[in-house]
Amino acid sequence: MAEGEPRESGRPLKKSSCASGGLPPPSARGARRLPPGNTSRTSESRGLFLRRFPGMLLLLIGLLSGVYLTGCWDRVEVESLAIVLAVGVDLEPQGDGFLFTVQVARPSLLGKAGGGAMGGGGGNGGGLGQTRASWNATLPGRTLFEAERRFRRQMSRRLFLGTTKVVVIGEEAARQGVGELFDYFLRDREPRFTLLVAVARGTARGILSTEPALEKTVGQEIDLLSRYISDDSTSLFPDMADFVGRLWTPGEEAVAPALTAYEDETGSRRLRVEGLAVFRKGRLVGWFTPQESRGLLWVLGKVEGGAIDLACSQGRVALEVTGQSVRVQPGFIADRPVVEVHLRDDTNLAEEQCPGPVFTPETLKAIEMQAEDKIRDEIMTTLTKAQEMRADVFGFGRAFRGRYPGKWREMEGQWEEIFSRLEVKVTADVTIRRSGLLTETVEPR
Question: How many degrees, rounded to 5, is the angle at CA 400 between CA 396 and CA 401?
Answer without folding.
Answer: 115
